[in-house]
Specification:
Layout lengths: L5 H67 L12 H5 L2 H19 L4 E8 L4 E4 L3 E4 L7 H7 L8 E6 L5 E8 L9 E8 H7 L7 E7 L5 E3 L14 H7 L5 E8 L2 E9 L6 E7 H4 L1 H32 L1 H14 L8 H39 L15 E9 L2 H7 L2 H16 L6 E9 L2 E8 L9 H16 L3 E5 L3 E2 L4 H12 L2 H4 L4 E3 L14 H12 L3 H17 L5 H21 L4 H6 L4 H7 L3 H19 L6 H16 L6 H8 L3 H12 L3 H19 L4 H7 L5 H12 L3 H10 L1
Parallel strand pairs: 15-17
Antiparallel strand pairs: 1-2, 1-6, 2-3, 4-5, 5-6, 7-8, 7-11, 9-10, 10-11, 12-14, 12-15, 12-16, 13-14
């Protein structure tokens, strides 16, 4: 649409606005007219069917009454003395009596149209008197067993109408009337056969839309129909009639689709005969006039739309003139030429560009303001004032909270820098809304999993007691974000910004109490005993550990380390620095002892990196104990085995382990324990063996397997990510792009096209 001129677009819009209502109106009026016409035509066709039914009833009723009158005048009493054909034919006078009966039957035939034949059967005789075969023996006439079956359905003294097919192949409807004992003592049956086609003449419709008819008796048998294939069939075998007449009212109509043609079915029940008269009409033929009227309405609508199109074009030209003038002036001002698209798109791009530029400027200003505030707060934490404090913290009361991630070394081994940055963003956003009004706070990241929050509180003293509660909420949220607990140190409250540096130091010292108390708590400072008392150092334990080391007695070393931990915990007051000094001194003395004795374990320990940095990064006394246990276990293990081929053996085991477990979540500390070496030593051996870090080699294995699956299977990216060991497709895409320079989907498409 952006390539079409604005005038044409407006014309199209206005045209659609006009066309849709006109089309809906035309469709609705046509549908209503068609619906009304169908209903009126259906009712008219039903009335025509009722008239035909009454004509049929009158004709058959008159014939039935003539038969009853004939049975009542004693005509058939003449044959009572002659029970057999031989008796009857033995004398001319007797034959004359039978001929008189035949003449009466013939006269009866002439009183109604369409009578094919009639006969009289004297009960228990062996002959019949008929108009078609005169006087005939039963064995030379048609089988009369059907008469008894028909009379089984007789109700009262009235006769019974029975549809059947004669031996001659003529379809008839027979009226069967047994002689009434009230009018004669002669026992016999009169049968009048009226042609089935005669009934069709009664049902004949002069309507050109007529598509047929059907007469159905009370048993469901088709008595008469133009379609001779279904004559005398039961409607249970004819789905359309079965569906229409099942539980239907005495008269009605319905529309049905049959063989692609829409038909109208009307029906009316005859109380006199017990029959159902059905009329069939073609809806297309019935609605010929209605369709012609509807076509005229459509033509009129098309003319209106054509005229309206011209009007809308003129109107669109007039409405678009101001916008076209504005675009022309913008082009003249900017010195550019109008691109080959409409004016709306040009104006939209211009306004979007202005909005984006404004948004970028606003974001840049906000970022610069945040950076400036953060820098000012950093200076305040160092005791430097670079801008008026009131601009940052408008209230009088200050507290500082220090937040440190527990087990930070494990945390950074699990998450890359991008993920860690995202975690910091989430926690910072949470801290922005941690306090309500009248509290100004600023959250800063200091590095190495350490955060500082300056809390500037302007509330009354009774309302400021919820700060510890907020800190506990912060600790819970931080654990959800990092997947690690945090330890929080909270300083005391002071008035004035001059003490912010001291408050930050108090909060930092409070965090260090986790060394004894354990991770995940909230500590308040300062305490009287912090930094007081004399230094503690287990000199005797140091010498015993060296002796046990020479004896390669790891169990005794472990017990001595546990004793040192118990002494530290039992001390009334021991500082964080004192604890670090104890363990740094033990490690230093041990390494010196190994070097002096030319033990190759000293060279292995050199590959662990900075042992002292590792000790300083540990959070709790339990972590220090675990590390020292591991440290001495590795020293003893290294001292007890030869140095030759050790590194290569470990390298092969590292590679084999990663190749076997790369689809799983690999925790390198647990892997090192399984291999029987330290984590730091394993990292050194891995880099020397394969030239990659452990995490890089693990991801390379996963990416190589993913490349194979991309080319040999039809699995989705998410399925392949889970197959090769990634928790989600996002991490998989990031590492795949890092090693292959493209997304997995792009790699798959490129390989298949080439």
């Amino acid at each position: 649409m952006k390539r079409f001129p604005m005038t044409l677009q407006l014309a199209l819009i206005l045209f659609i606005v006009m066309v849709i209502p006109a089309s809906i109106l035309t469709w609705y009026s046509g549908e209503q007219s068609l619906r009304d016409s169908e209903r009126q035509i259906a009712e008219s066709s039903l009335a025509e069917l009722v008239a035909g039914r009454r004509l049929n009833e009158n004709a058959l009723n008159n014939l039935a009454q003539d038969v009853v009158r004939l049975s009542a005048i004693g005509t058939f009493d003449r044959l009572r003395p002659f029970p057999t054909y031989d008796t009857l034919s033995g004398d001319y006078s007797r034959i004359s009596q039978a001929m008189a009966v035949m003449r009466e039957l013939t006269n009866l035939n002439h009183r109604a149209d369409g009578v094919y034949s009639s006969f009289f059967y004297l009960q228990d005789s062996d002959y019949v008197v008929s108009t078609d075969r005169s006087i005939a023996r039963l064995n030379r006439y048609e089988n009369l067993d059907w008469i008894q079956q028909a009379l089984d359905r007789q109700s009262g003294i009235a006769g019974v109408w029975v549809p059947r097919k004669l031996d001659s192949g003529v379809n008839v409807v027979s009226y069967v009337l047994p002689l009434n004992r009230l009018s004669t003592t002669t026992k016999g049956t009169i049968v009048i056969n009226i042609r089935e086609s005669q009934l069709g003449q009664y049902m004949y419709s002069s309507n050109e839309a007529s598509a047929g008819y059907a007469l159905i008796d009370h048993d469901g048998t088709v008595v008469s129909t133009p379609d001779k294939r279904i004559l005398l069939q039961h409607i249970a075998e004819l789905p359309i009639y079965s569906e229409l007449l099942k539980d239907a009212p005495a008269k009605g109509y319905a529309f049905r689709e049959v063989n692609g043609e829409r038909l109208l079915y009307t029906w009316s029940d005859s109380q006199l005969l017990g029959w159902t008269h059905v009329g069939i009409f073609s809806v297309q033929e019935l609605l010929t006039q209605t369709h012609a009227r509807q076509s005229g309405l459509v033509l009129l609508t098309a003319i209106i739309i054509f005229v309206g199109a011209f009007v809308t074009l003129l109107l669109a030209t007039w409405l678009s003139r101001p916008a076209r003038l504005l675009v022309r002036r913008l082009n003249e001002t900017s010195g550019t030429r109008l691109p080959r698209r409409n004016e709306f798109a040009y104006l939209e791009d211009a306004f979007l560009s202005m909005r984006d530029e404004e948004s970028r400027l606003h974001t840049l200003l906000q970022q610069r303001e945040r950076d400036a505030r953060s820098l000012a707060v950093q200076h305040l934490l160092r005791g430097e004032v670079t801008r008026p404090v009131e601009e940052i913290f408008p209230y009088a009361h200050f507290r500082v909270a220090a937040i440190s991630i527990d087990g930070y070394r494990q945390y950074i081994s699990k998450h890359n820098s991008e993920t860690r940055s995202y975690h910091r963003y989430l926690l910072s956003g949470y801290c922005d809304g941690l306090f309500g009004e009248s509290v100004s706070s600023h959250f800063l990241y200091q590095g190495d999993g350490y955060f500082v929050m300056v809390i500037n509180d302007g509330r009354e003293s009774g309302d400021r007691g919820d700060v510890p509660i907020r800190m506990r909420q912060l600790a819970t949220r931080a654990e959800e974000v990092f997947g690690h607990t945090v330890t929080i140190g909270l300083s005391r409250e002071q008035e004035g910004a001059a003490d912010i540096r001291d408050l930050a130091g108090e909060a930092s010292e409070a965090v260090k109490r986790r060394m004894i108390a354990g991770s995940g708590g909230i500590h308040f400072g300062p305490r009287e005993e912090d930094g007081s008392g004399k230094y503690l150092y287990p000199a005797h334990s140091e010498q015993r550990i060296l002796n046990f080391l020479d004896a390669e007695d790891l169990g005794s070393i472990d017990r001595e380390l546990d004793k040192i931990a118990c002494d530290i915990r039992a001390a009334d007051s021991i500082s964080y620095d004192n604890i670090l000094f104890i363990y740094n001194q033990l490690v230093g003395v041990t390494i010196k002892h190994l070097r002096e004795n030319d033990n190759h374990a000293a060279r292995i320990l050199a590959g662990r990196g900075s042992v002292y940095s590792t000790i300083s990064s540990l959070d709790t006394l339990d972590d220090l104990q675990a590390y020292l246990h591991e440290f001495y276990a590795e020293v003893v293990s290294a001292s007890s085995r030869p140095a030759s081929n050790e590194a290569s053996s470990h390298g092969e085991r590292i590679v084999a382990y990663l190749r076997e477990h790369y689809r799983e979540e690999v925790v390198f500390e647990e892997m090192a324990r399984e291999l029987g070496i330290s984590y730091s030593y394993m990292r050194k051996i891995a880099y020397e063996t394969i030239g990659l870090s452990l995490i890089d080699y693990l991801n390379k294995l996963r990416v190589e397997e993913a490349k194979r699956l991309l080319m040999t299977s039809d699995r989705t990216i998410t399925e392949i990510a889970a197959e090769v060991g990634y928790d989600n497709a996002r991490s998989f895409n990031r590492f795949f792009h890092k090693y292959e320079g493209m997304a997995p989907s792009s790699y798959k498409a490129k390989q298949r096209t080439s």
